[in-house]
Write a structure and sequence with these properties.
Radius of gyration: 16 Å
Structural class: mainly beta
Number of domains: 2
Shape: globular
Helix content: 10-25%
Oligomer: single chain
Number of helices: 2
Strand content: 35-45%
Order of helices and strands: EEEEEEEEHEEEEEEEEEH
Number of strands: 17
């Protein structure tokens, strides 16, 4: 049984046998190998697990920096201890954003969507609705970064 090693688009930390490409750093949240809390600081840094032959160790100390950005992301991610969501018009949602459709997180990829689950990773492509509003899981600050040229990465 894998340890709780994946963060869902809802911000929950779950066990998954799938290997990701990114590591989120929410500060020291472990007591041994158990998760004692969901975050320790407002720094929610994301790092690549591998880069030019370097592989991140499984248990890593917190990184420092980008306090103002991380503080804003912390506010935008959480409503108390629950995941904060917001509504957007489908026509305004850029590629790389996670939305909720049919109670399932989906990654927006242009005119298509890919459902995601911790058990299976990304599912089959489906058509993206053209009208109406959608519940968005990605924080507004991250969406602004995408709109201004940041290209998010994902594993297909």
């Amino acid at each position: 049984m894998p340890e709780r090693n994946r963060v869902t688009p809802y911000g929950e930390i779950v066990a998954s046998s799938l290997r990701g490409e990114w590591m989120g750093n929410r500060g020291c949240i472990h007591r041994g190998h158990d998760i004692a809390r969901h975050w320790a600081t407002k720094r929610w840094i994301t790092c690549a697990l591998e880069f030019k032959g370097w592989v991140a160790p499984k248990w890593v100390r917190g990184l420092v920096g980008a306090d103002a950005i991380d503080a804003q992301l912390h506010i935008e991610r959480l409503d108390g201890k629950q995941k904060r969501t917001h509504a957007m018009a489908w026509r305004e949602v850029p590629a790389g954003v996670y939305v909720e459709l049919d109670r399932t997180p989906h990654l927006v990829l242009g005119d298509c969507l890919r459902p995601w689950s911790a058990a299976h990773g990304y599912g089959d492509l489906r058509a993206r609705p053209k009208a109406g509003d959608v519940v968005v899981l990605t924080p507004p600050l991250s969406i602004r970064a995408i709109v201004h040229g940041y290209v998010p990465g994902w594993v297909s």
